Amino acid sequence: GIAVMWFRRDLRLDDNTALYHALRSGMQVLPLFIFDTNILDDLGDRHDRRVEFIQLQLHRLNSQLNGLNSNLQVRTGKPEEVFSALLKEYPIKAVFTNRDYEPYAILRDARIKAMLEAAEAVLLTYKDHVIFENREVVKDDGNPYTVFTPYSRKWKKQLEPAMLRGWPVEKYTGNFLSLKADAVPTLESIGFRASAMPFPGKEPDRVLIRHYSDQRDYPGIAGTSRLGIHLRFGTISIRRLVTLAQQVNDTYLNELIWRDFYQMILANYPAVGNGKAFKREYDNIRWRNNQHEFDAWCAGLTGYPLVDAGMRELNATGFMHNRVRMVTASFLCKHLLIDWRWGEAYFAKKLLDYDFASNNGGWQWAAGSGCDAAPYFRIFNPALQAKKFDPDGVYIRHWLPELEGFGYPEPIVNHEFARERCLEAYKAAINQR
Ligand code: FAD
């Protein structure tokens, strides 16, 4: 029989859990990637750089596999259709894959599992994307954590060196099925177009990570690792990065634990994946949802320089610094009283490192509705945030060149007024219980 290794958000050969197990199964391994049209058809933008990123990584994987006398099978379509065709082409006995905790992925995998079982094959899934998943780190009473700090303490306590050991895939690469070399489909052939912009590199910068604690809060400094996209698509192993963080910088390690934390929240509180506020009373807020104000926020035309600089950075590059993500998100929810789900959806379209769990977690944190969120009465003052975190205006001037001349808009709303309005709306919702 044949084993399929189904790559999804783990686009690498090294230290890949499911791949290791597939290669050790005694079967020949057929490497597969599916351009899922359920996902592609939902992307409005034919220039979506995440599709471009995936395509580049598939090229890289394919040339590595060619060197091992194999070839990456890249199919386009709905996963059920692809598997139904593959089952006819090959005597498939098992499909190996790494777990994905997003709502769509869970449904998809359940369908594929049933389908394989009907064909007397199995779907075998592995933990690879995180260090601890689901209910592996829980409170002493067995319930999942909802507050980060005690979670991170327990996470660190439970971590053992063996959990970070890389899977030695390289020892078993003789077990790939030898296949004739098919080319990876071009972007154009799946209806997308390339941009000329480069992507952040995937080699972690040790020196930068060593100084992470002192530099990470200043958007004008290149002080964060920019590895988000690589963690999202698994081009770098989380075990490798955690090992480095442990040696070099504890604050950086904590950020990687936040990533596990939000994945864990999503897995344990499925309502969060269903558009619900984590704290349900926040769903009583009467949002204003003014479309013109939303458009101004998206375009970076609110008249608040730090907010606008952030949105311009996002629109131009697909990246926004974390400090500025917090400020822009807070501004949308609290100053403009626009439903955080609108902002969540906009970030989902634009962020190269977009990840359902972290994005939802970040938005609900900013809106105050999330687990361990900013309390609702703490409202960022965008001008003070700019003073504190961009004291020389380096970041703001970079993204808002017109600030020096004419044409920069007046503030879309007065800060003090917006603050009072927000407190009233939030209080009314929360007291309704
Ligand atoms: P670094 O600062 O170098 O951190 C290293 C890695 O740690 C990141 O790549 C990321 O994987 C993880 N990480 C860091 N901070 C967080 C955090 N607060 N929560 C979860 N993981 C974290 N992160 C995403 O990966 N995808 C998202 O879609 C996303 N949306 C966000 C939306 C909002 C409103 C907010 C406030 C934050 C969001 N974040 C998201 C978290 C954070 O802003 C980004 O992970 C970070 O800015 C990415 O840049 P970096 O790779 O240079 O991160």
From TrEMBL:
Positions binding FAD in this chain are Y212, Y252, E255, L256, I257, W258, R259, D260, F261, Y262, D353, Y354, D355
Query: Which residues are listed under the site Electron transfer via tryptophanyl radical?
Result: W287, W340, W363
Which positions fall inside the Photolyase/cryptochrome alpha/beta domain?
Answer: 1-131
Q: Which GO terms describe its biological process?
A: nucleobase-containing compound metabolic process; response to light stimulus; response to stress
| Cofactor: how and how many bound | Binds 1 FAD per subunit.
Is this entry keyworded DNA damage?
no
Q: Which GO terms describe its molecular function?
A: deoxyribodipyrimidine photo-lyase activity; DNA binding; FAD binding
| Key words of the record | Chromophore, FAD, Flavoprotein, Lyase
Q: Which cofactor does it need?
A: (6R)-5,10-methylene-5,6,7,8-tetrahydrofolate; FAD
Q: Which PANTHER family match?
A: CRYPTOCHROME (PTHR11455), CRYPTOCHROME CIRCADIAN CLOCK 5 ISOFORM X1 (PTHR11455:SF9)
Query: What family classification does the UniProt entry report for this protein?
Result: Belongs to the DNA photolyase family.
Q: What is this protein called?
A: Deoxyribodipyrimidine photolyase
Supply the source organism for this entry.
Flavihumibacter petaseus NBRC 106054
